[in-house]
Write a structure and sequence with these properties.
Radius of gyration: 25 Å
Shape: globular
Largest sheet: 6 strands, mixed
Distance between the termini: 55 Å
Structural class: alpha/beta
Helix content: 40-55%
Bound molecules: 6-O-phosphono-beta-D-fructofuranose
Number of strands: 13
Number of helices: 20
Length: 543
């Protein structure tokens, strides 16, 4: 039986037909308390989901679907360490990375929590030395530049969180994140750094990823060109990986390796040792605060009834638009400059997890799965793409994220401070998207009849608003875990494996075959399609 054959799905289809024509204006007019009633709170985050095209009945039916598709049992199986990543035969236990010391999480009968805290302790000891300037480089100088080399989950989490928590960072350390195999990335990020004062963290779960290994080799050459001695590598390079053998082969002493485990997916790994660069920036205490925020949301997700469970609500509302309204994408719009990289981080988290069309039992789905995730910080987006969200032909559900307190209060003489201006935009946008402006209102304003249609806002465009008091490490941890678990809920309903990523393999394999064809001195015999052959020939002729 597929999910489209469940009673809950059929009920939602009928309900959608009945509700499709209802406007948010009517839903708010019918219930004066709607704005406060349709809200929930957990781990320090307040979610207002009242500006969604839902009634109480919609919510009941959506949660019925969650229950009928076994979301709660699947959640419990994940937390219990069952091997729910069936295509790779692995447990999925990023939640164990933030379990407090003393908790027990078993993988194949082994308690992994002491292992997690052992690595955290080694990371903290190392971070304390680097931050205090007592971990010295080969020439005896403290290391004040930190270059993280990694890609995907070994880059996006650290760079996003570093940018998000810059306010709390030790500012005399310079952090750079190199991910792209394009030599420009490494060149530009190291051109003003002194190798004698630089620490390189090679972050790779597998320690085989082409981009990361190429950048790591070039970074080592850059260091050795300046310091001239192979033994300098031990003072300037550390590794974060699950693959000790490959780390050793690369020439990094495993004493300088911080490990993690195969039950941590790459895109769920920023709170493992993959977060070493972040810990160096914000310190062990800040990192532990972040972990506490993650854990608070884990506990909320694990224990709160679905009716008030933030990840469940966000997940099921997403399914409502994705599967019943035909929405193709979902925008995430943080109203905080520090969260500039958050949408990019979520793109991997969500799209690599739920960009699947085969169910857990190996059949093609007959329904839509993961949406396209996109966004950028407000208010910049307002002056770029919001036009389409307001008046275009596509339905784009949006998450607005804002904070009641700013980390950078800037008063403006004779007027409201910057933060009030910023937050006024959050509230105004969701209001405009929900309620719009009718033709009558436009005409009443005296707009000529021929121009009036251009000035009408249909409204009825759904948004969630997530409000927190302040962007702290704890808040960030809770926010990331909120989206991790939202993705989980959706994957559970769609009956797909949110924890593998076979879709990235084919391109990697083909690139591996093409590299020698580009590199060969003599023109190789090409056996691709005519397009690929022609492109390779042109590249070889003109490079
Ligand atoms: O893009 C595929 C992927 O395997 C991601 O899932 C992962 O985060 C990234 O590559 C990097 O992998 P690694 O940490 O092993 O270098």
């Amino acid at each position: 039986m597929t999910i489209t054959q469940t009673a809950a799905w059929s009920a939602l289809l009928d309900h959608h037909r009945a509700l499709e024509g209802t406007h948010l204006r009517d839903l708010f007019a019918q219930d004066a308390a709607r704005g406060e009633r349709l809200s929930a709170e957990g781990a320090g985050l307040y979610l207002d989901y009242s500006k969604n095209r839902v009634t109480d009945e919609t919510l009941t039916l959506l949660l019925n679907l969650a229950r009928e598709t076994g979301v709660e049992a699947k959640r419990d199986a994940m937390f219990a360490g069952e091997k729910i990543n069936v295509t790779e035969g692995r447990a999925v236990l990023h939640t164990a990375l933030r379990a407090p010391a003393g908790a027990t999480v078993l993988v194949d009968g082994h308690d992994v929590v002491p292992d997690v805290h052992e690595v955290l302790g080694r990371m903290a000891a190392f971070a304390d030395q680097v931050r205090a300037g007592t971990w010295l480089g080969y020439t005896g100088r403290p290391l004040k530049n930190i270059v993280n080399i990694g890609i995907g989950g070994s880059d996006l989490g650290p760079v996003m969180a570093y940018e998000a928590l810059k306010h709390y960072a030790q500012r005399d350390l310079t952090l750079r994140f190199v991910s792209n195999v394009d030599g420009t990335d490494l060149t530009e990020k190291t051109r003003d750094l002194n190798p004698a004062e630089t620490l390189v963290i090679v972050s790779s779960k597998t320690f085989t990823t082409q981009e990361t290994m190429a950048n790591a080799r070039s970074a080592r050459a850059w260091l050795l060109a300046a310091l001239g001695d192979e033994s300098a590598v031990a003072r300037h390079f550390v590794a974060v990986s699950t693959n000790a053998e490959a780390v050793q082969q690369f020439g990094i002493d495993t004493a300088n390796m911080f490990g993690f485990w195969d039950w941590v997916g790459g895109r769920y790994s920023m709170d493992s040792a993959i977060g070493l660069s972040l810990m160096l920036a914000v310190g062990p205490a800040g990192f532990h605060e972040l972990l506490a925020g993650f854990h608070a949301m884990d506990e909320h997700f694990r224990t709160a009834p679905l009716e008030s469970n933030l990840p469940a609500l966000l997940g099921m509302l997403g399914i409502w638009y994705n599967n019943f309204f035909g929405a193709q994408s979902h925008a995430v719009l943080p109203y905080d400059q520090y969260l500039a990289y958050f949408p990019a981080y979520l793109q991997q988290l969500d799209m690599e997890s739920n960009g699947k069309h085969i169910t857990l039992d190996g059949r093609a789905v007959d329904y839509q799965t993961g949406p396209v995730i996109w966004g950028q910080p407000g208010t910049n987006g307002q002056h770029a793409f919001y036009q389409l969200i307001h008046q275009g032909t596509k339905l784009i559900p949006c998450d607005f994220i804002g904070f009641c307190q700013t980390l950078n209060p800037l008063p403006l003489e004779g007027g409201a401070p910057h933060h009030d201006l910023l937050m006024a935009n959050v509230f105004a946008q969701t209001e405009a998207l929900a309620f719009g402006k009718s033709l009558q209102q436009v005409l009443d304003e005296g707009v000529p009849e021929d121009l009036a249609p251009h000035r009408v806002f249909d409204g009825n465009r759904p948004t969630n608003t997530i409000l927190a008091d302040r962007l702290t490490p704890h808040t960030l941890g809770a926010l990331i875990a909120l989206y991790e678990h939202k993705v989980f809920v959706q994957g559970a309903v769609w009956n797909i494996n949110s924890f593998d990523q076979w879709g990235v393999e084919l391109g990697k394999v083909l690139a591996g075959k093409i590299v020698p064809e580009l590199h060969a001195p003599a023109a190789p015999e090409l056996r691709h399609d005519s397009s690929t052959n022609a492109l390779i020939r042109r590249y070889r002729a003109r490079r």
